[in-house]
Automatic annotation (TrEMBL):
Binding site for Mg(2+): 68, 284, 286, 288
Homology family: Belongs to the phosphohexose mutase family.
Name of this protein: Phosphoacetylglucosamine mutase
Magnesium is among the record's keywords: yes
Enzyme class: isomerase
Length: 552
């Protein structure tokens, strides 16, 4: 590192002292904490993003300020790599040490050592670009400013602020600028592409007139999804959609949004008895998660939840149908379809997907793991139960499809190829995206002529319960086997298994959260009472093994 670079970093870093006595970690989805302590972290991740751009030959890197479904006073920061995907896991330890370096001197030493090891040109000879986006949190603007300061303290680096966007939009734009050779790709291109491909899917529906599926109401978590869905609604001239909790009045994520709806299995605020019988959906605070639901008549706000597993099943079924129109066993090339889930996937969904003849794989929680796995297939479909997921298409498959679109003689096959092509354009290739996911669900339901109830009947969820336990040190829990088995502390797994076997169709696991200071407990069983009981008794176990009384 030359002297000019060094003094620039010293000067700017001293304006962003790290919070005392707090250790932050990059976690499942970047850094998240109370917004008031994040200035220094975000500044430093701005530096990291600029270094990442330098390392990747000047590719555009994304930096998103969001804490997704967390409360409004929290915020966070995460980095998108050139293909719009999550920051490579190899850099996470560096992100941790950069965020936690106690003073400017140690920070600069870390950067110098890392730049040397990674062969990053830190002499101003190369340019770097970081695209900055934020959700609607009030703390967003000043954190974007901190990130810009970080970026600008790397010579040759520029930060481009694209304002308030959904997390998936930022990832999409980063990808488009690098991969699709559209250096000026913007939010407008995103809206154009998703709306055009959605229209294409609708135009390809056979016997369209028979397929009206009625109104949709979308809960936008009082977040960024509200204004963006409004744009799509106008663009598509879509009169059958009603946007609620758009953020004009209520508080972000407060008793609204996909996380609340999925975890508590209740209707969000602003929904009630008049909505019984209507198809409803919920996005989360930064619009990268999507779930559907219907309100149970006289059910005291309870809902029938149509979660990420069911969205995955619907997508898998549609893709499989289209592929079976397009190919038969005589085809030389048989596209490999893979489905990726986590331990949180309802057991009934996995059984259903297996029955469809699909290859199901499990990874640890966190979309970075699912996404990576899905890439191993020609068509990789992944979803977390909470509604984050997408479908990835390999280049080889897309080239094959391109050829099929133009050479297929049969109109039926041509249409199937066109549909799959439109899906690949509609569904976000960088990350899970609630808006494009919502449009795909709507297009498929219309295609099938299905009500949300019919969709929900694909299989019946096993009753489940999720609990959180506050413990003294959640890092004491070490898991293996896609987080289904606890290795440490010793003895706890045996105790969990002993409880689980008592319940018919029982399944239970615990893992430390990557986004909250808790250990999560998940239990599934034949009845709701049994699932609740199992979860509660395992939560007690966790408390016995790891609670605050331990070692005190
Ligand atoms: C049970 C659950 O929903 N966990 C969520 C949650 O992670 P935890 O590590 O469980 O806190 O937030 C992640 C980021 O949004 C998401 O990927 C994940 O699925
Ligand atoms: Mg989110």
């Amino acid at each position: 590192m030359n002297e000019q670079q060094q003094s620039l970093l010293v000067q700017s870093a001293s304006r962003f002292p790290p919070p005392q006595g707090i250790k932050l970690s990059y976690g499942t989805a970047g850094f998240r904490a109370d917004a008031s302590i994040l200035q220094s972290t975000v500044f430093r991740i701005g530096i990291l993003a600029a270094l990442r751009s330098l390392k990747t030959g000047g590719a555009v890197i994304g930096l998103m300020i969001t804490a997704s479904h967390n409360k409004v006073s929290d915020n966070g920061v995460k980095v998108a790599d050139p293909a719009g995907e999550m920051l490579t896991q190899d850099w996470e330890p560096f992100a941790d040490s950069v965020a936690n370096a106690p003073d400017p001197e140690s920070l600069i030493q870390l950067i110098a050592d890392f730049a040397k090891k990674e062969d990053i040109p830190l002499n101003g000879s190369k340019g770097a670009t970081v695209l900055l986006g934020r959700d609607t949190r009030p703390s967003g603007e000043s954190l974007v400013e901190a990130a810009k300061q970080g970026i600008c303290s790397v010579i040759g680096a520029v930060g481009i602020d694209i304002g308030v966007v959904t997390t998936p939009q930022l990832h999409w734009i980063v990808r488009a600028r690098n991969k699709d050779s559209k250096p000026s790709a913007s939010e407008l291109d995103y809206f154009d592409q998703v709306s055009t491909s959605f229209r294409c899917l609708i135009d390809l529906i056979p016997n369209k007139s028979q397929h009206g599926i009625g109104k949709l109401i979308v809960d936008c978590a009082n977040g960024v999804g509200g204004e963006k869905l409004q744009v799509l609604k106008q663009k598509l001239n879509w009169s059958d959609v009603e946007i609620r909790n758009s953020g004009e009045q209520g508080v972000l994520n407060e008793q609204v949004g996909a996380d609340y709806v999925q975890k508590d299995k209740v209707a969000p605020q602003g929904f009630g008895p008049p909505d019984v019988g209507v198809r409803c959906a919920s996005l989360d605070g930064d619009a990268d998660r999507l779930v559907y639901f219907t309100i149970i008549p006289n059910g005291n706000n309870r809902i029938n939840l149509v979660d990420g597993d069911k969205i995955l099943s619907l997508f898998a079924l549609f893709i499989k149908d289209q592929l079976s129109i397009l190919t038969d066993y005589t085809n030389e090339y048989q596209p490999r379809v893979g489905v990726v889930q986590t331990a949180y996937a309802n057991g009934a969904s996995t059984k259903y997907l297996n029955q469809l003849g699909l290859h199901v794989i499990f990874t640890p929680t966190g979309v970075k793991y699912l996404h990576e796995k899905a890439h191993e297939f020609d068509i990789g479909i992944y979803f977390e139960a909470n509604g984050h997921g997408t479908i990835l298409f390999s280049n080889r498959f897309l080239r094959w499809l391109e050829d099929k679109k133009s050479t297929e003689k049969s109109l039926e096959k041509q249409n199937a190829a066109m549909r799959l092509w439109a899906v690949s354009k509609l569904i976000n290739q960088a990350v899970g995206d609630a808006l494009s996911g919502l449009l795909l669900v709507e297009a498929i339901l219309q295609h099938m002529g299905w009500s949300v109830e019919k969709w929900n009947e694909l299989y019946h969820d096993l009753p489940s319960r999720q609990l959180k336990v506050k413990v003294a040190d959640r890092t004491a829990v070490v898991t293996t086997n896609a987080e289904t088995i606890v290795e440490k502390p010793p003895g706890i797994q045996e105790a969990i298994t002993a409880l689980t076997v008592k319940y018919p169709q029982g399944r239970c696991f615990v893992r430390p959260s990557g986004t909250e200071d808790v250990v999560r407990v998940y239990a599934e069983a034949r009845t709701q009472e049994a699932a609740d009981e199992l979860a509660t008794s395992v939560a007690k176990l966790v408390d016995q093994f790891l609670g605050f009384h331990v070692g005190m």
